[in-house]
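Everyone, carefully examine this protein record:
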Amino acid sequence: MLAKNGKALLKIWIAEDASPGERYAASELRHYLNLMTAAPFAVTTDKPTEPAIAVGAAAESLGIVCGQNPGGDAFTIRTTGGGIGITGGKRGVIYGVYELLESLGCRFFTPTCEKIPCVPELPLPQLDITQKPVLEYRWHNYKDMTGYPRFAVKSRLNGTALPEEYGGGVTYAWFVHSFERDIIHPDDYFDGHPEYFALVNGKRLRDFGQLCLTNPEVLEITVEKARAALRKNPECRIISVSQNDCENYCTCPSCAAIDDREESHAGSLIWFVNQVAERLEEEFPEVIIDTLAYMYSRRPPKSLRPRHNVCVRLCSIECCFTHSFESCDETGFLHDLRDWAKVCNRLYIWDYTTGFAHYPAPHPNWNVLQPNMRSFITNNVKGVFEQACGALGGSTDLNELRAYLISKLLWDADCDIEAHKREFAEYYYGAAAEHILRYIDLLTEMVERDGLHTGFNDNCDREYLSDAMLDVYADIFQKAEQAVAGDALRLTRVAKAGLSIRWVRMKNRQMLQNSIDPQEMNRFFADWRAHGLTRIDEWVSAETTLHALLEGKWRGTEFYRHWSAEGREKL
């Protein structure tokens, strides 16, 4: 037994020189065992004379070692001699504690919603578990992760800078689109050196273009700035040398010659990044140089190969997100994924999980999350970033559930996703769960049955968001609210989710019928703020989105010269 009659029967043992992560793991284990049993568990650095729950180096001293190459994330849990040993890498030992707690019935659904069973008499589980994730890099940027690093650790995500006590993370010195942001900004260089910038239609572009990658001075500047960044951030093991967030690649004779020979605009890019990687390798042998395969550079070069210390991050931005890559590959993404897998020994993915033009709008991608993750794993992908709603206040569209499911898939692409979905819904939405699940089913059934495609940046005028379908969805949410009418917490959660339908109906009426109800509009934005929500559109504030609604514009970015320039507003 672990506990009985208000008494803890085992101590939690850590080594006297335990790492910060091991100490944190032990404190988390004590906290949740205390909650479960109402018994005060103790953490000790003195080797117990009786069985204990040994964590980290303490478990290793008993001969319990991680059964696989531990790396940072693998762990082993084993019941032995009346006690339990938990060991693993610097993050793995923490993950191992959460795995033990989950095996005892705990669930960590959101930062503010945990299911902790009350078990005053808690038996000792018989466990022999070793886990090591396929993906070395796992991240998504839903608010539940970006705003709550402790929850990111519980979700076994590692793709950001985390405190050492949380096991640290996979940290970038520069993170994507670094040509302008970190290397050669036009404000600093264009007037004196226009030749550093892309030649397009016979003209060097100051704005919204790439660099001239065959200019030797561009290479020297890049190497020196990357070297300085890595020296300044010695904890970082990856740095992105990658294109700006636009097209307009260089067509000068030298760049074009490489691209023509390689039959891909990734040719000049990989040629350039390989040189950066080679120049930096001697001083930074453990650092990976990351670049994007994005839009014009998505197709692999014909013969050039990324160096062993180069990571290529392939982006799925053009894809349909209501059908799996395997079943709907009109853009050729799966073909490119397979080709990159053949030539790149470290392949990462940048994938998309929401509608960025209208964060609240229902995004019917529920059924593709698992098959697409499996496609990544099958093709030797080592890291995945699932780009989500990045608003500081989060959003609706059942994003709490989606964030939970994506975290599970990043750890194990073959997990029982339907069981996870139902378990979350039944606890988070209570008596409304069946209605919420029915709503998801209706969304996905229609787009699959009718072959409706959905991109990452669509407006709300879609067949599955017609007036007739919105009536159906609204009726489901009305029944969901009625089901939890006596449960204030879950009623609030259902009402927040229902904002998705309210937004689409209001937006479509204005855009498609030139009709707006001032009271409906006022109530919507008041409720939006009341739920702590901020942006509705990726790049502009809710205030600008409201102004766009009144002006009859689909997006607030239409007020600006370019979405990536003046349109980047706070919140």
